[in-house]
Each structure stands twice: as structure tokens, then as C-alpha cells.
Amino acid sequence: MIQLEHVTKTYPKASRPSLDDVSVGIEKGDFVFFIGPSGSGKSTMIKLLLHEVTPTSGKVYVNNRDVTSMRSWKIPSFRRSIGCVFQDFRLLPNRTAYENVAFALEVIGKSKGVARRVVPEVLELVGLGGKEHRYPHELSGGEQQRVAVARAFVNRPLILLADEPTGNLDPDTSIEIMRLLDRINRTGTTVVMVTHDSNIVNQMRRRVIEIESGRIVRDQPRGVYG
Amino acid sequence: MRLNYILTEVLTGLWRNVTMTIAMIITMAVSLTMLGASLLLYQEVNDMEELYYGKVEVSIYLLPEVTDEEREALDSALKADPLIRQYSHKTKEEAYAHFRQIFRGAPDLVDATKPESLPESFQVKLKDPTKFKAISEKYNGQPGIDDIVDQQKTLEKLFNILGSMQNLALIVAIVQGIAALLLVANTIQVAAYSKRREVAVMKLVGASNWFIQMPFVLEAIFAGVIGSVLAFGILMIAKTFLLDGTFESLTTVFPPILWTDVVLLLPLLAGVAAGVSAVTGWITLRFYVRV
Predict the structure, then answer these.
(1) Structural domain for B227, as ranges
(2) B58 lies in a domain?
(3) For a Cys staple, B146 with which of B49, B61, B155, B239, CB 3.0–4.6 Å?
(4) Percentage with pLDDT > 70 across chain B
(5) What is the per-residue pLDDT across A165-223, written as a single tens digit (0 to 9) for each?
(6) Measured between alpha carbons, how far is B91 from B142 in angstroms, rounded to an integer?
(7) What is the ipTM metric for this complex?
(8) Residues 3 to 42 of B: which have CB under 8 A from any A CB?
(9) B197 vs chain A: nearest CA distance in angstroms?
(10) A84, A103, A106 ranked by CB distance to B1: nearest
(11) Quick check: B205 and A78 CB within 8 A?
């Protein structure tokens, strides 16, 4: 599903590479944590998978497609098969929960009819039934992140990337979001999550890949934070 | 849905930044008016050249004390000249009658001029109006000739004046055009900035590039088209009230500008405005905003 082969990424003007000769494979349906200190290269990983940055050398395969050599006009359709959740939610403040999720469908050309059918369903799935017409500022942090998860998942992506999704949430809310991601993972969606929340990693007991200074220092099937 | 979405985006985008939108439309309208005026002048000069160059003559003025032999010698020389298409002789009396006709609006001037003060002349039409120099060199200094005047020279002065008016209009059009395009670029940068959250989400969920860029480019095109319609209105008003009103009497000198020429300007100006705005908008998005 995801394959990195000897990937090195050096940002311009950086003294050392963010990722240094990293090779890793992730199977369909996996749930993977990327952990490591700030600046270790975790977020670069997400950006590589989204084709927001291209590697300095090496190959990145996502959904069996070579991302490194992908033509720029193909990137939008490629991104439709990937859902994304961030620490800062990235919701549109002037749109309701429903509209935020529907927006993601409408801008890729889905009709309003499709949105009317699918959006309430996915909001129900993330546990926001009845709160469709609330604006982000009327929702708690956890609820906002649920909207973001709904938006990422509404298009039924093959992969869900989560960049510190619990970074702004308290421990109890974080657990709830993790239960949600776990449920999504059980539908067959590959989940890749970048985090440094040790509690969560220790509770979930999933595959843990630890990165330090751009290198993979640990890859454990049912790991803990360390 | 898509059309509806894009139209709503365009209109809210223009309204959100309405002062800038107005500035953009006004500068575009001024620029396009000048462009239209310069095109009409260009057409006018062409029409006039066609109309007048067929009529231009070389006047060979004779000295008051010219003798009959000198006149006859000149007459036969002109008759034999291969460069000359036709010629006619104008006596002092005919010259005076013509003078009275031209200046009938100024009776004082006519009264002050005596018939004998106007010179007699030969009016010569050349086969090729540009060959004036050859004629001038050939006849200048021959006995009985006072002066040789090429009417084309006089016409050229007029055309030069019209030509420089046209150039001036074109320069104003270009300068205003540059200002308009900078405003377009700025408007789009502001619009893209105020919609940066939406754009970020659209990129994230995989909206196609044209779908993200289209509302911005359409904003620019919309402003361009409105500007061209305004410019067309100004040109129509100028035609109706200035050319057909105040300066109507000038149509004896200047061939009138046709309505068909003016109406043709609308699609032309709209096309130019829309095209240039779209390209500017697209370049702005591509190189400054990185949408």
C-alpha cells in the first residue's frame, strides 16, 4: 500500500537531511504510529505521502503508484484516495459541520444530492449526529476533530493520514478520537498517524515506527512508545 | 451545482473587495476607451488617405509677369510629361472665384483681397503621387514659374497630427492598461489570501487545479468585460454627441466614422480585455499565489 525505498529528503538550506535513507513498507489495512521527537522527520513523512514535497532521492509508492514521478496535474486525483487530519483541525470557520464535510465533496465535483445522502451518514459515524448545523466555534475541540475526521473519511479514502490529531486535545478526548480512528481502520482503511502522545501509543498497541534524526531506529509490530 | 458554485464565488469575491473591483473596472474602462479611440483614428486616417490621395494635386504657380510664350512652353511641356496623368490651367479669375467660394464665411477677407492678387496656376495630377520631387526638380527655375507646391505635403501634416493623436491615445491605453493589469494581479492576490483556508482544504481533498483557480480567473475576466462595456458606452456617447453633434460640420473634411466600425469595437474590446485579464490572473495565481 505504502512503500518508501531509500528515501532521503533534504530541505534547501538545511544542514542535515530530514529523512536519511529511509525504507519502510506499510500493508493495506495497517495501523501505524510514527513517533519521535520534534524535528525528527515525522511530518516530512506525511508531506512526502501527500506529494506536498518530493524526495531528494529514493522512491515513494502510494496505492502502487510512483508518487515521485507523478505529473503535477495528476496530484489532485491522487489526493482523493487519501484522507488527512491535522492537529489544528483546519475547518472552515464560516461553515457548519455539515457544510465543512459537504465542501470536500462539492469541490471534487460531487453533486449536492450525493452530499445530502453521504454527509449525515459520515457525521453519524463519527458521533456528531444532531450537531450537523453547528459552526466550528460552537463545537468542542474533540467535536471539531471529529468533523475533520468525517471530512477526511467522507470520500472513503484508502489511506488516512493523521498528523498529531490529538495534539490539541485533552487525554479523554484523545482516547475518543483514537477509538474513532480505530473504527475507521477496521473498515479496511490504512491509518498512518504521526504522534508523540505516549499514552495513546501504549494503549493502542499497534505497529510503532520510531524516527530519530531522519532515520528509523525502531519498527515494532505491537509496540509501545518506548 | 458547479456553475452555481463558481458564479457565487465570483460575485462574493468581487463584492468582498468592492473598492478594488471598482478601481480595476474604471482603469480598464479608461484604457479600453483609449484603445478603441486609437483604433477608430487608425481607421479614420486610412479612410482619409484613400479619399484624399486620389485627389491631391501639385500646384505650379506662375509669376504675375509671365509671358504668353512662357505659358505655352510650359503647357506643351506638361502635355508631353510621362509622369503626369492630367492637368488643368487656372486663371487669376478662376482662382479668385475658388477663393471666394472657400472663404464665403469670411466676407471681410474676401473684400480685402483683389482678384489680381491671386496667382494663376497649373493644377497637375501625377500618375504616382509620390513622384513629386521629380516634377519639382524638373520645372523649378523654369521661366515664368514662381513656386511649386505639393498638396500632399499639406495633407501629410494633417495626417501627422491625426497620427500623433492616435499614438497618444495608444500610449494612454498602454499605461492605463498596465495599471489595470497590476490592479487585477493585486485583486487576485487579495482574493486568494482571503480564501486561503478554502484553497488549502480544496488542495488537501484533491480539487482539480482549474476548479480552484477558475473563480479567481473569472473575477478578472468579469471585471475586464464590464470595463469593456463601459468603454464601449463612452465611445458611443462620444460618437453621438461629439462627432455627430458638436463637430458635425467637420464631416466635409473628415470622412465620418461609421457606426458599424464603432459597434465592431464591442466584441473586440471585450475579447482583448477578457483575454488579457485571464492571462494576468492565471500568471498571478501560478507565480505569486501558488494556488
Answers:
(1) 2-52+156-289
(2) no
(3) B61
(4) 95
(5) 999 999 999 999 999 999 999 999 999 999 988 999 999 999 999 999 999 999 999 88
(6) 19
(7) 0.90
(8) 5
(9) 7
(10) A106
(11) no
Cell (9 digits) for A51 = 506529494
- Res B104 pLDDT > 80: no
Q: Which cell goes with B287?
A: 507565480
Q: Which chain A residues are closer than 8 Å to B2 by Cβ?
A: 109
Interface check A88 vs B, CB under 8 A: no
Both B126 and B257 in a single domain? no
How many distinct structural domains can be found in chain B? Answer: 2
Hey, is the C-beta of B91 within 8 angstroms of any chain A C-beta?
no
pLDDT in tens, B15-65: 878 888 898 899 999 999 999 988 888 888 777 777 777 677 788 888 888
CATH value of A1-81+159-226 in 1.10.3720.10, 3.40.50.300, 3.90.226.10, 3.90.1150.190: 3.40.50.300
**Residue in this structure with the C-alpha cell 513656386, named with its chain if needed:** B147
Cβ separation of B211 and A155 shorter than 8 Å? no
Q: Among B64-68, B151-155, B198-202, B248-252, name the one with the lowest average pLDDT.
A: B248-252
Question: Is A151 close to B205, i.e. CB distance below 8 A?
Answer: yes
The candidate with the shortest Cα–Cα distance to B240, out of B206, B263, B213, B219, is B263
B77 or A59: which leads in pLDDT: A59
**Mean pLDDT value of segment A130-148:** 96
A104 vs B: CB within 8 A: yes
SS3 percent helix, strand, coil of chain A, rounded to 5, is: 35, 25, 40
- Distances in Å between the Cα of B169 and the Cα atoms of A209, B38, B233, B267, B269 are 69, 5, 17, 20, 15
- The minimal CB distance from B202 to the residues A107, A111, A155 is found for A107
Residue A106 sits at the chain B interface (C-beta within 8 Å): yes
- pLDDT band at B289; cut points 50, 70, 90: low
Contact A109 B209 (CB under 8 A): no
Across the beta sheet with B121-126, the strand order is B84-90, B121-126, B58-62, B145-150
Shortest distance between the Cα of A15 and any Cα of chain B, in A, equals 26
Residue B177: exposed, middle, or buried by beta-carbon count in 10 A (0-12, 13-18, 19+)?
Answer: buried
CB–CB of B205 and A108 under 8 A?
yes
- Nearest residue on chain B to A115, alpha-carbon basis: B1
Work out the average pLDDT over A19-31: 94
Residue A178: what are its φ and ψ, rounded to 5°?
Answer: -65, -40
Q: Do A104 and B205 touch (CB under 8 A)?
A: yes
B290 contacts in A (CB within 8 Å)?
Answer: none
